[in-house]
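Support reply, case 0932

Customer input (verbatim):
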Amino acid sequence: MTDTPEDPHRLVSAAVVVGVDGTPAAHSAIRWAATVAARRGRRLVLAYGMNSTPAKTWLMAYKPMVDEAVRTLRMHGEQALLTGTQVARETAPELAPDTLISEHSPAKMLIELSESAHMVVLGSRRGGAVAHLGSTILAVAAHGRGTIVAVREDGEDITSGPVVVGVDGSPVSDTAVAAAFAEAAERETDLVAVHTWSDLTFTEFASTGYIEIPAEDLQTAEQAVLAERLAGWQQRYPEVAVQREVYPSTPAQHLREWSERAQLLVVGSRGRGGFRGLLLGSTSQSLIQRATCPVMITRPG
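Our regenerated output:
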């Protein structure tokens, strides 16, 4: 029998990696990541992607201009990392953050780093806009490995309330359940497991006509499904108190509402209704942009 390879994201050497771009949203991500790294005794790596390829391509006929553009990008990155290091040390003085500048785009850099990182953390702005050069956070959440966390601007101080996890019964959500129990135990807080019967809106769900089972029987059946999904993890983490919430539909809406009182929301990268090849589900995308608390995206393997 061959040995099972150890999960690289759980190795002692696996660092908490945070994307840096000099924005207030990135500073919120740095503070959240620094707190996690200090609490778990892990390295903190601040990473900046220069995205110098476009400048080199556009100005390839004017080498002096290319060199100047790359120098400017590097200077901006060095300043962002210097400020980010100060933010991290103010949050966790015991840390000595490592810094990294890459010529790649932020998305490509962070996706590569996610292969061996304990987790990758990025900042997102309030009001639904996505920070870190537009869609970077969605690209990293879709294509990165392991755990990706989106921290909303000014959301790094959320340390009260439960950990909330979305459960739909898929293998991807099973990974989210495992991560959520671990986070709740680490944070010494309760866990709220949110399960929905359908990904449809309630109006669509109620008007389909194909469900003739009484609502109370469906509720009982889905409660049993949820209990089965949680049972093994409750045995492994007996210290974590679990609250089960079952709703008929619209997982994104209910999870978004729970995010207003949670300290962390955990979801899988793609849920039960995801199409083959769709790496980031609509629920995950919606929560990254609209949830109030930090959102943890998990992926099997």
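We compared this against your earlier run and they match. Two observations from our side: The CA atoms of residues 137 and 144 lie 10 Å apart. The longest strand covers residues 44-49. Please reopen the case if you see a mismatch on your end.
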